[in-house]
Design brief:
Blueprint: E1 3-6, E2 27-31, H1 34-38, H2 44-63, E3 67-71, H3 82-93, E4 97-101, H4 106-113, E5 122-125, H5 134-141, H6 149-160, E6 164-165, E7 168-169, H7 200-213, H8 229-242, H9 244-247, H10 267-272, H11 277-289, H12 295-319, H13 338-341, H14 347-359, H15 364-378, H16 382-392, H17 398-409, H18 426-432, H19 453-464, H20 466-469, H21 476-484, H22 487-503, H23 509-515
Parallel strand pairs: 1-2, 1-4, 2-3, 4-5
Antiparallel strand pairs: 6-7
Helix pairs in contact: 2-7, 5-12, 6-12, 11-12, 12-17, 14-15, 15-17, 15-19, 16-17, 19-22
Bound molecules: flavin-adenine dinucleotide, ligand DLZ and iron/sulfur cluster.
Amino acid sequence: SKPLLLVLGDQLSLSLTTLQDAPDNAVVVMCEVAEEARYVPHHIHKIGLFLAAMRHFSQALRKKGFHVHYSALDDADNTHSLISEAERIAEQCGCDEIHVARPGEWRLWEAMQQRENATIPWRLLEDDRFFTTPDDFANWAKGRKQLRLEYFYREQRKRTGLLMEGDEPAGGKWNFDHDNRQPIKAALEFPELPQHHQDEVTKGALADAECHFSDHMGTLANFNLPVTRKQALVDLKHFMQHGLAQFGRYQDAISDSAPYLYHSRLSAAMNIGLLSPHEVCEAAEQCYHEGDAPINAVEGFIRQILGWREYVRGLYWTKMPRYKSANQLGFTRELPAFYWDADTDMRCLNRAVQMTIDNSYAHHIQRLMVTGNFALLCGVKPEALCDWYLGVYADASEWVELPNTLGMVLHADGGLMGSKPYCASGKYIDKMSDHCQHCRYTPKQITGPNACPFNSLYWHFLENNAEQLNKNPRMKLIYGSLSRMSDEKREAIRQQAESFLAQLEVSPGYGQTCHT
Ligand code: FAD
Ligand code: DLZ
Ligand code: SF4
């Protein structure tokens, strides 16, 4: 037998199951294909990241002694689809089986499963670079009415021993969120990111991305994502030394000028395989033991990875493919045009989208409470919003993007991801950020020409979705406030929101034009 070992763009780890116990005659295959760059309109940084990191990884594999076939974007015979490219090379090299680890997206998993009995059969292997497999999650979920992160996370802590003192959680509590909600402060200084050197391989990859996909969001002038394991380790160490200690406290803060604050920006490196979630959590735990970072920061950080990251992946694989078509609140609106160009006078949205255009990054609270919250309040349909998040962020892969967008932001999954929608008015953004002082609107008014649009949209959302939400015990208080409003006030708010929505420009945006 002579296997072809297919390594996908987000499987850049030497520990990958596909590569274990490879026979001497195995052919490792990596493919740059236009289909993967265009199925949603990816940000140019994301495309540059995949091309550069894949090219570097193929070199690392050759150094390890693997026989590597690399399909480059410009190869004349490139078929530009992952499935057909693997099969073409298998035939060319005389391979009789194709091995691949579980991909990051259902559409590929399904296409691969359909080839299990093909002339050259595909063999699908589990991707064990996570703390849990989809089967582990399904077993945990079996028979439970609610799939709450908190319970999943505690089990993960016990199972891995991370931040455990015997049977007890380190610091005496499982959760230190209470200490982690501080708003932005003027005096804060945020760490600068390390600047990564661009060698000839990286420069070549970025030039190819530019040449083929210059119509995509962003420019490559400030590209600074880690594209090798070595660079990713530099970022990891830098975060542990300069970011982690303050991570917890300012986890929910939003800044008008700083894109990263004390966030790690390690998601892209972890998601494509340059760093393992285990080593990232262990590094954070070590900082706690050495007294370099407090428990609220370390616990908060580890919960994001050991808890949320594993949880959303489990949910994705357990609930797909039906999950993707869920739309519990029946939303139908197209994506507002400014999500593509930041052209809005709402300062918080302008900054979140502009930072996204500049860096292919926005931190969690921008994604959830600014662009996400706005889309929720306006009723943007899940497929339009999901395609945007999947395209614009360098760390986006459907297994992690979809539950966050469809479940956490849009509450489209009937409350699996969150017991209540993360809806908020301008008051929340005003409390957590320094945006409003730069905005032409005021968060203190609900109606009138200067009123922050989030305010009327918030009440309008609650009113419109009352049938589905007003029985929710966690929404009782807020529906109580709504019901105490006078009819005139409610009518004025409704009119304010509806006239805002009527003038909200939706455009086919970049997404559609790119496909034509
Ligand atoms: P930090 O704040 O430093 O957090 C540390 C790590 O925890 C992250 O690197 C990430 O691996 C993990 N993490 C944190 N929050 C989550 C979460 N909610 N779900 C899963 N992992 C989490 N994350 C992605 O990796 N890819 C995506 O495509 C993605 N899409 C998102 C879409 C929406 C609408 C929302 C609300 C969140 C999304 N997230 C996604 C989660 C989160 O916003 C990012 O992981 C985080 O902003 C990445 O930046 P960071 O590495 O600086 O994270
Ligand atoms: C996102 C992306 C891009 C832009 N390009 C490629 C590519 O050329 N080759 C590849 O194997 N993967 C690419 N990817 C990632 C894929 O879209 C997909 O998410 C993963 O391969 C699934 O594991
Ligand atoms: Fe955003 Fe409203 Fe504040 Fe303007 S006033 S920055 S729109 S929350």
